[in-house]
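User: Can you recover a sequence for this backbone? Please restate the input before giving your answer.

Assistant: Of course. Working from this structure:
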């Protein structure tokens, strides 16, 4: 297809017309169960009435002012994130990559403010994903994202997750921070063990480093906790958010302790749109639902149900998929024997949208408010797909 859009994406030839709850309808009227949610974005599913109402109300009142002025909705969103997390302070932007850019800048400013401007390097991990800006592709690493984009932004050192010898060897007088995803989602839904997270905290404390957790995909209740690092009991210095925080409206956020953020004073960082009244209304509407009694507990319950049903399917179909379900809450993946794209394509053919992930994994990222019947529907289709591919 020739198109006026820059062809940076390999697109699937479907266009969707509308969404309702856990379902989307394409322009030909076909119905799909959405277990991809625009890559963990639509945490409340499609067309959630409260999110719609709040966005409509704010759009008709005041869409944008500027960060030159006070923005009460942004203040309220920050206060609520702070009240429900380790953080003392929040910067708003418009995407996950920008949130990570803020975290990297914050870490450099922290050491600069402490009189150690030479400490600017960030340790990241093999198979990570942190975004597509110049700094975040360097943080991510690998030819796939770096190829052809010129000199790599300096200041990132990669080590394997859980390899403490390599980690110790990578830490030098220039190291400023360690940045990790609590679950390496794009990399293949690989959960970072709680003990590994605890060790990273210790290493940061021993070496005066900031611990940054990239919660762009794992945050906002996805794993059955508001933020996924809570599972490990570890307190980070910085956490980044994106994807689910706006429920479909583009928002990013970088949360930090006031100590870690002490260099981020007036004039050091900014974003034209970041946390504007419309974005803040969307973020607050999402929090209204996610922070309501029982919502996140229900994510944990539905996650456990989906996981056990996936494990059943895996056991019965071990020629197509491994007996290995990965992830936490409603960020789950199954390791495939057949090419993962064969499963993803076959699932879509049967009306269920799921994304792939690295390491030949098929991911499941349903809306956080799914019901048992949606799980049963997806599982029945997966069973059918395994039967077909196993023949
Ligand atoms: C998606 C993602 C990003 C990048 O977010 P964008 O909004 O696409 O910039 C960064 N980190 C993680 C862990 C992600 O899953």
């Amino acid at each position: 297809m020739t198109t006026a859009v820059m062809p940076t994406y390999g697109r699937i030839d479907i266009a969707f017309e509308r969404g309702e709850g856990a379902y989307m309808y394409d322009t030909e009227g076909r119905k799909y169960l959405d277990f991809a949610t625009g890559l963990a974005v639509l945490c409340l599913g499609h067309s959630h009435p409260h999110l719609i109402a709040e966005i409509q109300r704010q759009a008709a009142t005041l869409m944008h002012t500027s960060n030159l002025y006070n923005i009460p909705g942004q203040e309220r969103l920050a206060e609520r994130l702070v009240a429900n997390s380790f953080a003392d302070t929040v910067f708003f932007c418009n995407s996950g990559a920008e949130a990570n850019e803020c975290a990297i800048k914050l870490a450099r400013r922290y050491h600069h403010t402490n009189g150690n401007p030479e400490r600017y390097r960030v340790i990241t991990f093999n198979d990570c994903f942190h975004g597509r800006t110049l700094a975040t592709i360097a943080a991510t690493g690998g030819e796939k994202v770096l190829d052809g984009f010129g000199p790599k932004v300096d200041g990132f050192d990669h080590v394997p997750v859980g390899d403490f010898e390599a980690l110790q060897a990578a830490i030098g007088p220039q190291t400023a921070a360690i940045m990790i995803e609590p679950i390496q989602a794009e990399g293949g839904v690989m959960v970072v063990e709680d003990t590994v997270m605890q060790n990273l905290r210790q290493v940061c404390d021993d070496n005066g480093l900031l611990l940054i957790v990239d919660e762009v995909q794992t945050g906002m209740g996805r794993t059955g906790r508001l933020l996924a690092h809570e599972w490990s009991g570890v307190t980070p210095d910085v956490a980044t958010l994106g994807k689910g925080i706006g429920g479909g409206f583009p928002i990013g956020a970088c949360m930090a302790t006031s100590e870690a953020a002490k260099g981020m004073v007036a004039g050091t960082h900014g974003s034209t749109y970041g946390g504007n009244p419309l974005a803040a209304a969307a973020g607050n509407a999402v929090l209204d639902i996610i922070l309501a009694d029982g919502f996140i507990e229900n994510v944990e319950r539905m996650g456990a149900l989906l996981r056990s049903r996936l494990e059943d399917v895996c056991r019965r179909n071990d020629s197509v998929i491994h007996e290995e379900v990965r992830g936490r809450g409603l960020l789950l993946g199954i390791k495939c024997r057949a090419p993962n794209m064969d499963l993803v394509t076959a699932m879509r053919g049967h009306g269920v949208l799921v994304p792939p992930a690295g390491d030949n994994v098929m991911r499941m990222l349903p809306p956080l408010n799914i019901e048992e019947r949606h799980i049963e529907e997806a599982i029945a289709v997966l069973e059918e797909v395994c039967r077909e591919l196993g023949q």
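That completes the design. The longest helix spans residues 295-316.
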